[in-house]
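Problem: given the chain below (477 residues), write out its structure.
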Amino acid sequence: MTRPLGGTAGPGWPGGGAGPGRPPAAGGAPAAVPLVGPADVPADTPRAAGGAPGRPPRPPRPPRPAGRRRGGTGRHGSAGAGRRAGARARRWYLREVLVAWVAARVVVAAALALTRFLADSVREDNAVTLDTTDLLGWDAGWYLTIADHGYDAAGDESRRFFPLLPMLVRLLSLPGLAGHSGAVLLTLVNVLALAFALVLVGVARAEGFDEDTIRRLIWISALAPPAFVLVMGYAEALAGLLAAAALLGARTRRWEIAAAAGLLGGLCRPLGLLLVVPVAIEAARGLPLPVIRQRLGAAGAPGLGARPPVGPGGARDLLGRLGAVLAPVLGAGSYLAWSASAHGDGLAPLTMQRDAARHGSTANPLSTVLDAARGAVHGEVGTALHVPWLLLAAVALVVMFRTLPVSYALWSTLVFAAVLTGSNLDSSERYLYGAFPFLLVAAAVTARRELWTFVITVSAAAMTVYATLAFTLAYVP
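Solution.
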């Protein structure tokens, strides 16, 4: 198991703190001693079936009344079903996820209200118009146009937006919903945001994080400054859901889930191609290669350290691993193949991102960050706002390599490098948010109550500010 900073697992990290199966601390209360042991029972006491010697047999159970099912109290076993449903909800932290999900939408609604107030004030006081947008602005407008009219009608530039989200919107736009595709898009992405949060809980549970850390993860993922795009018609919720599902499937050796999520992830965003790397690392675990066993281990830690070593289970298992690794390439490749067939340029969806008005061409990361920092002096606040988050992400990567599985750390590093090597840092926070291991680190290092209170308060305030700047066109989300 990879250990956190300091060499021992701490609170919040997998393996840290007290938990089930851990011995009590020194000086704790001794275990209870039974008042009657086998030596105190007469020797002629009959032996219970399957029980300890000297114990009387259990009396037979009375027959259940007609119409009552096992686990329930009533005709349909409603009490037992209710208990099971409640246990599932607690296991997935459903209440916390729903409350955080609603809170994020309240924050974005407040930002929209503030935007309208500012626009009205400027118009009344200065007789000028403040340009604004809403939940269907920026990239959401492109996705909506593609869903309504297709790539040809949307123009060549629309091909830089991968097709999965528009395809889902078109699929869900039933005949009676004609003209309401915007509502379909917003409903879809907000439901996907809820699903993304639930899968994040599944990832944290599989990796062995404690309950408090999982609750912090739920809130930080909902109220992180760039998380307002999960309320807009963006593909971030869908891409995050698929990335988390792909890595959860790979980490738990459910290759069919990893393959399906990876395939769709490649169809969703250009960065979906990078899922090949972490899935390949997880697929290599357990293979009979000495170098892989030495560097990666057989089971993968942390969180899965208690899982027995998993090696290849024959041809079917090897094919499952290979399919999961190749799935993101197949997903993205199918869209690029369509682009080549329909427009004669298969790489255009990728090369368009290198335009100076978008991500820009490859540049020196240090020069790019310094230029962005100088923007604060020259009034380019939107550009300068990227710098603090990039520095925090760099620190988080160091922590990640020491505390999380190497597959998570390498994937996040590739996303960070893709952001940092472009000459334009616009949307960098949104791209980094999509690499969910950054959220795991943020939840784990904020275990102190005072620190957590400060972080989540500042984060919610920053989310409001960033959303307002985006709605007033002062910040590129």
